[in-house]
Amino acid sequence: MISTHILDTNLGKPAAHVEVKLFHAETHELIATATTNQDGRVSDFGIKEFKEGAYQLEFEIAPYFSSLKIKTFFPRVCIQFFIEDINQHYHIPLLISPFAYSTYRGS
User: Fold this and answer.
1) Which residue of 17, 56, 77, 84 has the fewest C-beta atoms within 10 A of its own C-beta?
2) Which residue, among 49, 48, 55, has the nearest Cα to 30 in the 3D structure?
3) Which residue has the higher pLDDT, 106 or 50?
4) Residue percentage of the chain with pLDDT more than 70
5) Could you give the CA distance from residue 38 to residue 13 in angstroms, rounded to a whole number?
6) Residue 12 above 90 pLDDT?
């Protein structure tokens, strides 16, 4: 399973209503699209089967900052990661602010 959440470190709050797309990284084939909930989370993209390989999450953060009337340097964040074991849970958090972002492999 793949999940994610977004924390706006500038405000210290979850980033709700952000569109997140999941792609096969090598072919850039769109697998699923989801929107973060009020807690800034996408707990499941609704995909039942995964294969080993490279994937990419794309976070459309420009509309989020625009809704807050905040300018951002990064309109979109793309994170590539590799699934080695299809039986594991892959949680990819994103920390954002108007002029920086960071990520890590969560649990």
Assistant:
1) 84
2) 55
3) 106
4) 100
5) 10
6) yes
Q: How far apart are CA 72 and CA 48, in angstroms?
A: 35
Q: Which residues of 61-92 are buried (b: 16+ CB within 10 A; e: fewer)?
A: beebbeeeeeebebeebebeeeeeeeeeebbb
Length of the chain in terms of residues written: 107
CA-wise closest residue to 101 among 54, 53, 65: 65
* Confidence band, pLDDT 50/70/90 cuts, at residue 49: confident
Both tokens of 12, joined, read 């210290």
For the chain, what is the radius of gyration of the CA atoms? 13
Residue with tokens 């490279």: 54
Q: Are strands 19-24 and 30-35 parallel, antiparallel or unpaired?
A: antiparallel
- Report the C-alpha dihedral over residues 106, 5, 57, 82, rounded to 10 degrees: 10
Given this model, what pLDDT does residue 58 score? Answer: 98
Is residue 31 within 8 Å of 24, Cβ to Cβ?
Answer: yes
